[in-house]
From TrEMBL:
It comes from Kibdelosporangium persicum. InterPro entries: ABC3_permease_C, MacB_PCD, Macrolide_Exporter_MacB. This is ABC transporter permease. Coiled coil: none annotated. The keyword Transmembrane applies. It is found in: Cell membrane. PANTHER family: ABC TRANSPORTER PERMEASE YTRF (PTHR30572:SF4), MEMBRANE COMPONENT OF TRANSPORTER-RELATED (PTHR30572). Belongs to the ABC-4 integral membrane protein family. Residues 250-364, 696-811 form the ABC3 transporter permease C-terminal domain. Keywords: Cell membrane, Membrane, Transmembrane, Transmembrane helix.
Length: 819
């Protein structure tokens, strides 16, 4: 029996191909994710590990740097052969085009030494007045050995130096520097870390213990070379896991869409073989045997599709690594047994689960059905499904309504998101009922005003509401995700723009670094203030800090501003006078459970903290400072070194802009812009991320298109006799093709509209839960919605090409003879 069913399965190559494509794409997505993440981790693990350092002593993030005296004390530890200080500092490499290279200049400079961290690939070691460049940055800057290049320093100074050599770098934990100075004193006499080299046979653990006794554990951290190697491997694994988890969500969406296609395909195959299944039952096959035979078919198809998906996934992973890898990094392709097993473990069960409902239907075929040749099943009740969907929608609405406030706690935000997901799932369950409720009235209207093809197409689209719902559900999932994130992105963009407009005056000239969140030179603020025509110039000092309230500590962002300066947060409660205390974003205050009058402690670095009182709430959001404090409470060492933006105003805004541009004409580390420029910069990166997400979710829509083809093909097969009768009474082939196209467009348009409505609603809930905005304060992405609707019409037309062609070629006599 199983051989007979498998042989019959091979006779439906077109249907099988659609299933194979759908599940292959989903499995390929999973395997590609695994290959890329494993390869990235293997590449990081495979980097050269330095073996010349026994112990390192480093500063704790933001703490005071190590001094020469500390280095000398560490050098006197028994068993230490030498101790060298390693400094990192601001160094902006200027390219031939007069602009900074893409490397973040904050810690891009270091001093050259003879340790194993440098490996010369060209030229020689730099002497005082010379530099060596990382070969990747040198290539980007268009510099070679023997060239002179300009290096910008943090205090506004610059040095012109000869490029003596090019190097590659073996890092411990830091990003490889771009510039190595032949004179380490260019960066000062303090060190980011001290490296200890042990004498042969020395006890490294004893050296590390002695180093810990010599330093303050709150300000310094001591680690052995083995510890650093283990930490590097752990970071590589964590990075791989993080990227894998991020991308597997998109793979799950693609597989979900594929399940709808598989379910429709097997429904079609079972319907086509009703008579064969009935004959098997008539000659003694049990229900269990029939059901298991269909599941074996699904398993075989899943195994074939998984094999293709694994191969395609490995190829796409290699392509992705080759596209994203840098020229100087040898990417290690890692295809682990786990990635292959995950592909099969995903593809085969997903196919069998999707086919299970059809297997049960096949097992329920009665032997008497062998006397019939049409492919129809009795309609199934939608009561249980509708009740489940109604309960899910009601529960979701209750969860959302109960969290309508803006000042939500973390738990309430999770409840709101859960409510949105529940409504979404409820709509999926209610899709057949909604199809009847929406398409039947539409059909009656179009039947009165449309031609024969329109009437036939609309009527056929609701003939099997369950199957139509399955098809539109696949489209809805893909489009809803696109529209949800488009709504969230549009809302965040709108909020960012509003926040900047409310904080920064329209006439202000803005001075920023060309690299995001990199501090400007210490001279920039004073230089802007000295420009003729500038009457008010103040700075934004954006930084990441820790906030402690009622014993709980969390990460946040802060800016220290001058009272009466250009920057003024949009206050919604209390006062905006930072001289009286901190002005906090209302959502941030709700997250930490703080209110007006509460005290909070802002931890700036391991040795510096500020305790202040919340005197005002502002309408802030992520990406902008959540805490504003008075510059006067900042320690002197941070006032000049943390300036990220400078805002200047004067009676003549145009003259101020021209004067500041002239003042910084020769400074590639400075960008002069205005409020609109700040808004554009703040939103561009986010829009790029959204575009990538649209492309990834687009895979689900492509897979769903195969489901439309399946549904139309099944519809044509079930109506063989009806089409034959229509042809016999005079219906032309073009009319039949138009009717199928109308049916396809109606199905796609319905799925598109449902996906758009669900997506906008879920996007509004995400905006409310994640950003703490009112549920009704969201922005509708009209461009995305318009493109989605047009895309659905195109998908509907293209998906109908093959089924319409097949329907129009139906043999009239054979079709009429069908009973």
């Amino acid at each position: 029996m199983l051989r007979a069913m498998l042989r019959d399965l091979r006779a439906h190559k077109g249907r099988i191909a659609m299933t194979l494509i759908a599940i292959t794409l989903g499995v390929a997505f999973v395997v590609t994710t695994w290959v890329i993440s494993d390869s990235a981790a293997e590449t990081l693990r495979g980097r050269d590990i330095r073996g010349d350092v026994a112990v390192t002593v480093r500063t704790v993030g933001g703490g005071p740097e190590l001094t020469p005296a500390e280095r000398d004390r560490l050098a006197r530890i028994p068993g230490v052969a030498s101790a060298s200080g390693v400094a990192f500092g601001y160094a902006g490499l200027v390219g031939q085009d007069g602009k900074l290279t893409s490397a973040r200049p904050t810690l891009a400079g270091t001093g050259w030494d003879s340790s194993d961290r440098f490996a010369l690939v060209a030229g020689r070691t730099p002497a005082p007045g010379e530099v060596a460049l990382h070969e990747r940055q040198a290539r980007e800057a268009g510099r070679e050995t023997g060239d002179r290049t300009q290096i910008l320093l943090s205090d506004g100074r610059s040095v012109d130096a000869v490029v003596a050599g090019l190097f590659t770098y073996r890092p411990f934990a830091e990003t490889p520097p771009s510039v190595a100075f032949g004179d380490p004193g260019v960066l000062g006499d303090r060190f980011t870390r001290v490296e200890l080299v042990a004498r042969p046979g020395a006890d490294i653990d004893a050296i590390a213990a002695a180093a810990r006794d010599l330093v303050d554990p709150a300000l310094r951290t001591v680690a052995t070379g083995a510890d650093l190697a283990a930490q590097a491997q752990a970071r590589a694994d964590d990075s791989a896991q993080s990227s894998r988890e991020s991308l597997l969500g998109f793979a799950a969406v693609a597989l979900l869409a594929g399940m709808f296609v598989i379910a429709n395909t097997f429904s079609m195959l079972v319907t086509q073989r009703t008579r064969q299944l009935a004959l098997l039952r008539a000659i003694g096959a049990t229900r269990r045997q029939v059901r298991n035979a269909v599941l074996v078919e699904a398993g075989v198809l899943g195994w074939i599709a998984s094999t293709l998906g694994v191969a395609l996934g490995i190829g796409l992973g290699l392509l992705g690594l080759a596209t994203t890898g840098s020229d100087d990094t040898n990417i290690t392709l890692s295809v682990s047994p786990t990635s292959i097993l995950v592909g099969y473990a995903t593809g085969v069960p997903v196919t069998m689960i999707a086919a299970y409902a059809s297997a049960r239907r096949a097992a329920g075929v009665a032997p008497v059905a062998a006397l019939r040749t049409d492919g129809s099943f009795a309609p199934r009740s939608l009561v249980a499904r509708s009740i489940l969907g109604g309960v899910a929608v009601a529960a979701g609405v209750v969860a959302i309504v109960s969290t309508l406030r803006n000042d939500l706690s973390t738990t309430e935000r999770i409840v709101a998101m859960g409510g949105g997901i529940a409504v979404w799932l409820g709509v999926l369950f209610l899709a057949p009922v909604l199809a009847n409720a929406v398409l039947r009235p539409v059909g009656r209207v179009m039947s009165r005003r449309g031609g024969p093809a329109t009437r036939l197409g609309v009527r056929n689209s609701v003939r099997d509401s369950r199957r139509t719902a399955a098809t539109t559900s696949a489209l809805m999932v893909g489009l809803a995700l696109v529209c949800a994130f488009a709504t969230l992105g549009s809302s965040i963009t709108s909020m960012l723009s509003s926040s900047i407009q409310a904080t920064v005056p329209a006439e202000a000239t803005v001075v920023e670094s060309p690299v995001d969140n990199v501090a400007l030179g210490t001279d920039v603020l004073d230089k802007a203030r000295s420009v003729p025509g500038v009457t008010n110039a103040s700075a934004d000092r954006y930084m990441f800090v820790k906030v402690t309230h009622n014993g709980s500590t969390s990460q946040t962002t802060m800016s220290a501003i001058e009272p009466g300066g250009v920057i003024r947060p949009e206050v919604v409660a209390g006062t905006g006078d930072v001289r009286r205390g901190a002005v906090v974003g209302e959502n941030q205050a709700a997250m930490i459970g703080a209110r007006l009058g509460d005290e909070v402690t802002l931890v700036l670095d391991p040795t510096t903290s500020v305790t202040t009182t919340i005197v005002g709430l502002h309408k802030g959001m992520e990406g902008r400072p959540l805490f504003y404090v008075d510059l006067a409470v900042m320690p002197a060492k941070l006032k000049a070194t943390t300036v990220t933006s400078v805002y200047a105003t004067g009676p003549d805004a145009a003259a101020v802009r021209a004067g500041i541009e002239a003042a910084f004409l020769d400074r590639p580390d400075v960008v002069v812009t205005d409020r609109d420029g700040v808004i554009k910069e703040a939103t561009e990166g986010f829009q790029l991320l959204l575009s990538l997400m649209y492309a990834l979710f687009g895979a689900a829509i492509i897979i769903a298109a195969f489901g439309v083809v399946n549904t139309l093909a099944l519809s044509v097969m079930e109506r063989t006799r009806e089409i034959g009768v229509l042809r016999a009474v005079g219906a032309s082939r073009p009319l039949i093709r138009r009717a199928i196209r109308v049916e396809s467009v109606v199905i796609c348009a319905y799925g598109g509209l449902l996906g758009i409505l669900v997506g906008i609603g879920f996007g509004a809930v995400m905006n409310h839960a994640m950003m703490g905005q009112s549920l009704w304060e969201f922005s509708v992405p009209y461009e995305i919605i318009g493109a989605a609707l047009i895309g659905m019409v195109v998908v509907g037309v293209l998906a109908a090409l093959w089924p319409a062609r097949r329907a129009s070629r139906t043999d009239i006599l054979a079709a009429i003879g069908t009973t």
